[in-house]
Give the backbone structure.
Amino acid sequence: MPALAQLTTVVLDCADPGPLAEFYRAVTGWKVTSSDDDSVYLGENGVQLAFVRVPGYRPPAWPGPDKQAHLDFHVEDVALAVEQLLELGATKPDFQPGEGQWTVLADPQGHLLCLSE
């Protein structure tokens, strides 16, 4: 079946796009492709992550019914990546499903991400 569309951008609502984009720039190594006071876009190879200011932004609860989506990242060393991301402002929730197959973190504004080898 031919594709109907090509994914170009995943947009994360947030309270403050600049610092959150810097966090994900450190995660991905991607460059800023566009920015203004209310949004920052990072991208490479045709795919972007965008961070858009939303007044009254509230992070999802974890675990809880508010979780809508999360980002998965492959890393060479989960323990090292967790340590580095915690230094950058991530937090590690107590609830860790998956029986050690991945590690769940929350970025500095509460979006969930998972790390696996």
Observations:
- The beta strands are 9-14, 31-36, 39-44, 47-53, 71-74, 103-106, 112-116.
- The helical segments are 17-28, 78-87.
- The two ends are 31 Å apart (CA to CA).
- The chain is about 20% helix and 30% strand.
